[in-house]
Amino acid sequence: MQILVTGGLGYIGSHTSVLLLEKGYDIVVVDDLSNSNIEVLDNIFKITSKKPAFEKIDLKDKKAVSKLFQDYTFDGIIHFAAHKSVNESVNYPEKYFSNNVGSLENIIDEIKLLENPINFIFSSSCTVYGQADLMPIDESFPLKEAESPYGQSKRQCEEVLKSLHDSGHSFKNITLRYFNPIGAHPSALIGELPLGIPENLVPYITQTAIGKRECLTVFGNDYETADGTCVRDYIHIMDLAEVHITCLEKLISSNDDSLFKVYNVGTGKGTSVLELIHIFENVNDIKLNYKIGERRKGDVVTAYADTSKIKEELNWSTKNSLKNALKSAWNWELNLNKDE
Ligand SMILES: NC(=O)c1ccc[n+]([C@@H]2O[C@H](COP(=O)([O-])OP(=O)(O)OC[C@H]3O[C@@H](n4cnc5c(N)ncnc54)[C@H](O)[C@@H]3O)[C@@H](O)[C@H]2O)c1
Question: Domains in the chain, ordered, with CATH?
Fold first, then answer.
């Protein structure tokens, strides 16, 4: 089985690539390195002793995508590649629509030419729910006007996939709405590697703990939550990687040539920013320099998943603890800085 992994050198893609190789899949990693590093390929090799095929392609380039589909035959596609910075998307919305939606459309144009139904997994995000009225969030909740062009681009991608399904084209799709992935591979050879100032909380925490950043600012402690800080559903990256294997197996084994499913992927548990900081401090025996700042524009207050659909239909749930995730994130940061 040959699987195309777009964005396979990025954070979630690299961890999933490792599991795919360990499960015996052949993979073709496509990445334009706009938010990743070619060394990740070597580290995937160090972990798995397998070197995946790699193509440095910008998926916005329609001709290059056509050639990719001429050069290889794929049994499945896991489409991670996208820009993901919520803040950047506010300043450069067009960059987000052209890459996130445009790249998907280029791939879909090739899918339409295939004879057999392809197995397709799409990376969506809980941002499509905006600030939901109730918690936990289940998949039937309305998709609200997204808070950012990034969220809006994910929503548009979901619509593009739905249109393909509704058109009657044979195509098996699972869309995964990720909550908040954190942590790193237990080897500490791959992990989240933000270029520039991290936007996500955990890389900011680890970079502050190691001294790269002076102080972590907690954006607001006057929200209507137990301790006043925002609440998120943090999922260990190894659990998130694993769910792609479960979904791929489901798609491959299904006889329904127009299977079309959407699942939340989270733990089902909300954790506040302050709780997360304190767990990080305790498990790693570190005192973190942090301060309380103003609320940040665009942050939803609370978001955690109802995970019953994926549990019932795919018998999948998370295995790793938050403590384990925060330990692995710290080990990854230590490993990144071991020579400095
Ligand atoms: N990390 C999160 O918190 C999170 C949460 C919800 C959803 N997602 C989604 O999951 C997916 C993967 O996220 P991630 O955290 O691994 O991001 P990432 O930035 O680490 O990985 C994305 C990879 O795609 C590549 N890429 C981007 N545009 C490309 C293009 N046009 N052609 C080829 N390669 C391209 C980048 O170089 C990068 O290696 C994204 O679609 C993202 O929107 C991420």
Answer: 2-183+234-265 (3.40.50.720), 201-232+268-334 (3.90.25.10)
